From TrEMBL:
Bilayer topology term: Multi-pass membrane protein
GO molecular function, one term: transmembrane transporter activity
Pfam family name, one: MFS_1
Family matches, as PROSITE patterns: MFS (PS50850)
Residue ranges of coiled coil: none
Protein name, per record: MFS transporter
Native species: Natronosporangium hydrolyticum
Keyword Transmembrane among record annotations: yes
Domain Major facilitator superfamily (MFS) profile: 227-425
Gene Ontology, cellular component aspect: plasma membrane
Annotated localization: Cell membrane
Transmembrane segments: 29-48, 55-75, 81-105, 112-133, 168-193, 229-252, 258-281, 293-312, 318-338, 359-377, 383-403
Length: 425
């Protein structure tokens, strides 16, 4: 990547990075619409039960468990930019089917289940290719800056997206709002298609074997003394986060009686800390060290999530709980920026797809399990009890990272340091 940066713009001075940044911007705002609209279609239009909403949540991420590992091996054989374009266009086509079926009066939970699964399938390939493409586009020395800027736009989408999505759902209905996400995904594909930097075709490997390549990715991650605890911490957080998410919208809509607009505003406030997290992640890692920042970002912020299930009725306590979510989302983004940049920096380019896919398999593979867990807990403990149980459990997600060499490691090792070489040999 030619360094055309200026001090004020950094990587944004590079046209290709700007195109990726624009793609991320529109797709992330569209994603926020779907995150709110798809379950609300089930809840409001089809009167879904807690278990049905949990199953919908599980199916939206089931592909990470079922296809995550082979996706990494396949992505390492393909040009990653092509995978990004196909992933965006595929999601756009799938999303369009919901408003069409709704207008025709034939929308069912079965269709929503299929839509959720297909969206997740395209997302598996897109996400693995996305994290593997960035090092090629910006160069490894610029990864923290590149990830921070992209995480900033995701955080901004989380800040404004739910409120916008809530109002769109009120004005247009949830099925029609999904049509706007389809347009956003198509626009994202156009931006990626306009990136000019040549991407070399992956070198052919005559001896390539899918199972062998999957095994290489698993051995690299599970045999690494730093990647292993990061995967365990992230997977645990995602497990109980998905359980909480499966019942959160039910809690806000049925327990507290909020409309779609207010639900979107609550989620906006709770997600707002992510923008600050993206801004401050780099300086926090520099001030306290990358290792301590990784575990502390979760340990000191996750308990603030406990405020939400304690809210009994709409009022000031609801907004205090939303502010607690603000703190928690700050910690999540600081954690993500720090650990994702580290993973990318220590992994050989030929293994990037498999490393990212293995991590995704391990940490996103817990999401469908968590979604089902939330639905089952909702049936057994009630919606409020399920939300409380999930948030309490998430407070302990930091322990694998805390009980590893990361705890006091101010500088993460280079790939040729003994801690890395020994771990992956």
């Amino acid at each position: 990547m030619t360094d055309v940066r200026t001090p004020s713009l950094g990587l944004l001075a590079d046209p290709d990075y700007r195109r990726l940044f624009a793609s991320t911007s529109v797709s992330q705002f569209g994603f926020q619409i779907t995150q709110l609209a798809l379950p609300l279609v089930a809840i409001m239009a089809l009167a879904a039960s807690p278990f049905q909403v949990g199953l919908l949540t599980a199916l939206s991420t089931a592909s990470f468990l079922l296809l995550g590992l082979p996706a990494g091996a396949w992505v390492d054989r393909w040009r990653r930019r092509t995978v990004l374009i196909v992933g965006d266009l595929g999601r756009a086509v799938v999303l369009i089917t919901v408003p069409v079926a709704w207008w025709a009066g034939v929308l069912t939970m079965s269709q929503l289940y299929v839509v959720a699964f297909l969206l997740g399938t395209f997302t598996v390939f897109f996400d693995v290719a996305y994290q593997s493409y960035l090092p090629h586009l910006v160069g490894r020395p610029n990864l923290v800056e590149g990830n921070s800027k992209l995480e900033s736009v995701r955080a901004l989408a989380q800040l404004g997206g739910p409120a916008l999505a809530g109002q769109l759902i009120r004005w247009l209905t949830a099925p029609v709002a999904l049509l706007l996400d389809a347009v956003a995904m198509a626009a994202s594909a156009i931006f990626v298609a306009r990136i000019r930097k040549p991407e070399p075709k992956p070198a052919p490997r005559p001896d390539a074997h899918l199972l062998r390549e999957i095994g290489e990715g698993l051995r690299f991650v599970l045999g690494h003394r730093l990647l292993r605890p990061i995967a365990a911490t992230t997977g645990t957080a995602n497990l109980f986060g998905a359980a909480a998410m499966a019942v959160t919208l039910l809690f806000l809509e049925r327990e507290l009686g909020l409309n779609a607009g207010t639900i979107g505003l609550v989620i906006t406030v709770a997600s707002g800390g992510g923008l600050l997290g993206a801004i401050y992640a780099r300086r926090l890692a520099g001030r306290f060290g990358q290792g301590p920042t990784i575990w502390a970002a979760i340990a000191f912020t996750a308990p603030f999530q406990l405020l939400m299930p304690l809210v009994a009725a709409p009022g000031w306590r609801l907004w205090v709980a939303a502010a607690g979510g603000f703190v928690a989302s700050f910690g999540v983004v600081v954690y993500n920026v720090t650990q994702v940049s580290f993973r990318q920096s220590i992994t050989p380019d030929a293994l990037l797809g498999r490393m990212n896919a293995t991590i995704r398999f391990l940490v996103w593979g817990t999401l469908p399990i968590g979604g089902l867990l939330g639905g089952v807990l909702g049936e057994l403990l009630g919606i409020r009890g399920a939300l409380l149980a999930a948030t309490v459990a998430s407070c302990f997600a930091f322990l694998p990272a805390f009980c590893s060499p990361l705890r006091g490691m101010r500088r993460l090792p280079e790939p040729d340091d003994p801690v890395t070489v020994d771990a992956v040999s």
